[in-house]
């Protein structure tokens, strides 16, 4: 799914109206109906009590007025408060005229901000994608008043005061919503940790916006949902054999961290790799062979860490990093691997795909390796701190995305920045945010599992590098979501 800018969303509205012969009032009605449908599933009339709708002067406020009417018709007890402005949008005026008289309407003023209790349900329809500058004056006072009340707030389209895709100074005021109900496509702002407390849980509702327009729109931002990955996993043909799915090499583990190698190896096998060989330090040999009998194991001559790179010829992909440790000898192995994989080896038909993670990235960052060493057709997947060690400290989440994008473009590699919506940057400058996963996965070992899964998919030559990476990240999160759905079993 594409993520569009506020400006593109406005064009999308126009295109939808033209294509479907709709008036803007009809489109607004669709948005309000989608909001109301969601609202009614969230709270019934009794649970909601009196619902306060705060309306700004634009179409976001118009959505709020239309929703107030529809909720009133569904038996909810409604109250509306209007933010004064010199002019109101035409569709706002239409919906103001059609607001049932039974709904109490008040104009907000500085001396008399609407009464809001902690259990009040508030629909925030002050500002949407038309926000043109930071909130000030009465609007800012109202939003501060609302946030202080700690009420149950639903924001229409986007929390008022929050920009859809641009960074804003921390001192800017914006609504803290419990839920945000948006239309058509998600906003970039929803996917960044710095906005999480404002956006709350977000929901995107389909209001039948123009598919052809969305398909033609260019955007660097994409949201990987089930539809995006559907059909990308090649079938396992009946006459396939283990060679069909590739032979992967995993370089992992150090004393006290052999578990990371075991987790990555198990995930690689679950990911469908044809053959897996792991290179672990001597101390890990017995542990590994006992834990993962399906994999082959090569013991490094050093007991506690990896010190030598094995022959790479047999392998279709190499993963390095889980539990690797920070020894200089292991850095030397990593350097040799990067060199061997990027060298135009005559014997190799394609550059050897690498999956670089965890301690391997820390080693690169600590020694400030020219990051280009990770270049060309390789994949790295750091978490934010590991990433900053490779680049520079980010001012905020938007700046981190810029750094990520620049890094992937400059070094022509796939980079995955791990987090709640892990972001995969491509050499072409696209950013793909993953939709699966949950906070239960924020625990040691999750990254090792991801490395193993990605390694399996990269070893399968039938998958293109980007598709393998996007699918691996999606499947990893989906596995976590399925596990979270299972009822906990007590031992
Ligand atoms: N496809 C869809 O997603 C649909 C969305 N809809 C809704 O429409 C809004 C966008 O509506 P728009 O009228 O463009 O913009 P807003 O309602 O967000 O705000 C515009 C008005 O607010 C004033 N404004 C802007 N910034 C400030 C500020 N910082 N302080 C005070 N006033 C501000 C602006 O005034 P100007 O002086 O800047 O001209 C406007 O008066 C979208 O978010 C959805 O909710 C449609 O309903 C249908 C489909
Ligand atoms: K809003």
Characteristic key phrases:
alpha/beta, Rossmann fold, UDP-N-acetylmuramoyl-L-alanine:D-glutamate ligase, 2 domains, 10-stranded mixed β-sheet, 7-stranded parallel β-sheet, 17 helices, elongated, binds ligand LZDS7PUF, binds potassium ion
Summarize it:
This protein has helices at 6-20, 24-42, 45-48, 59-73, 90-97, 137-149, 196-199, 211-216, 226-229, 258-270, 285-291, 328-342, 359-366, 384-390, 397-410, 446-459, 465-485, and strands spanning 50-55, 77-82, 104-107, 121-125, 152-156, 179-183, 201-205, 221-224, 247-251, 275-280, 296-299, 317-320, 354-356, 379-380, 414-417, 423-425, 431-434. With 491 residues, it is of the alpha/beta class.
CATH class of the largest domain: Alpha Beta
Biggest sheet: strand arrangement: 8-17-16-15-14-13-12-9-10-11
Q: Could you estimate the helical fraction of the residues in percent?
A: 25-40%
Radius of gyration of CA atoms, rounded to a whole number: 26 Å
Task: Please state the structural category.
Answer: alpha/beta
- What is the 3D shape? elongated
Q: Give the CATH H-level superfamily of the largest domain.
A: Ribokinase
CATH architectural group of the largest domain: 3-Layer(aba) Sandwich
Domain YjeF N-terminal: 9-215
Binding site for (6S)-NADPHX: 59-63, 128-134, 157, 260, 323, 383, 448
Family: In the C-terminal section; belongs to the NnrD/CARKD family.
InterPro entries: Carbohydrate_kinase_pred_CS, CARKD, Nnr, Ribokinase-like, YjeF_N_dom, YjeF_N_dom_sf
């Amino acid at each position: 799914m594409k993520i569009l800018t506020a400006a593109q969303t406005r064009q999308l509205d126009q295109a939808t109206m033209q294509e479907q012969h709709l008036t803007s009032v009809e489109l607004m009605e669709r948005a309000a109906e989608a909001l109301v449908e969601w609202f009614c599933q969230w709270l019934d009339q009794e649970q909601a009590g009196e619902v306060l709708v705060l309306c700004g002067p634009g179409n976001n406020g118009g959505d709020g007025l239309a929703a107030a009417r529809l909720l009133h018709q569904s038996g909810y007890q409604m109250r509306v408060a209007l933010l004064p402005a010199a002019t109101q949008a035409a569709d706002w005026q239409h919906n103001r005229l059609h607001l049932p008289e039974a709904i109490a309407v008040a104009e907000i003023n500085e001396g008399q901000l609407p009464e809001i209790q902690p259990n009040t349900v508030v629909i925030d329809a002050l500002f949407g994608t038309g926000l043109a500058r930071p909130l000030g004056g009465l609007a800012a006072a109202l939003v501060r008043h609302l946030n202080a009340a700690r009420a149950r707030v639903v924001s229409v389209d986007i929390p008022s005061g929050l920009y859809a895709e641009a960074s804003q100074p921390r001192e800017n005021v914006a609504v803290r919503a419990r839920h945000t109900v948006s239309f058509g496509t998600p906003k970039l702002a929803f996917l960044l940790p710095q906005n999480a407390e404002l956006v709350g849980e977000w929901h995107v509702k389909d209001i039948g916006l123009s598919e052809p327009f969305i398909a033609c729109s260019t955007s660097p931002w994409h949201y990987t949902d089930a539809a995006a990955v559907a059909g990308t996993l090649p079938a396992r043909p009946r006459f396939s054999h283990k060679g069909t799915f590739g032979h992967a090499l995993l370089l992992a583990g150090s004393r006290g961290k052999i578990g990371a190698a075991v987790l990555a190896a198990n995930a690689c096998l679950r990911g469908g790799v044809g053959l897996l060989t792991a290179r672990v330090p001597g101390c890990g040999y017995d542990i590994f062979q006992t834990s993962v009998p399906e994999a082959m194991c090569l013991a490094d001559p050093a007991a506690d860490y990896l010190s030598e790179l094995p022959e790479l010829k047999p392998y279709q992909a190499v993963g390095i990093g889980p539990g690797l440790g920070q020894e200089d000898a292991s850095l030397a192995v990593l350097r040799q691997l990067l060199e061997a994989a990027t060298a135009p080896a005559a014997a190799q038909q394609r550059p050897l795909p690498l999956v670089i993670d965890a301690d391997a990235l820390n080693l690169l960052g600590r020694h400030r390796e020219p990051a280009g060493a990770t270049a060309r057709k390789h994949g790295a997947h750091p978490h934010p701190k590991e990433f900053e060690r490779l680049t520079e400290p980010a001012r905020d989440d938007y700046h981190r995305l810029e750094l990520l994008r620049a890094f992937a473009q400059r070094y022509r590699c796939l980079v995955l920045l791990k987090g709640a919506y892990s972001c995969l940057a491509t050499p072409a400058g696209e950013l793909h945010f993953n939709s699966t996963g949950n906070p239960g996965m924020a625990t040691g070992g999750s990254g090792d599992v991801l490395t193993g899964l990605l390694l399996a998919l990269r070893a399968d030559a039938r998958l293109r590098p980007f598709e393998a990476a996007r699918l691996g990240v999606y499947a990893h999160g989906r596995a976590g979501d399925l596990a979270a759905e299972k009822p906990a079993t007590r031992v």
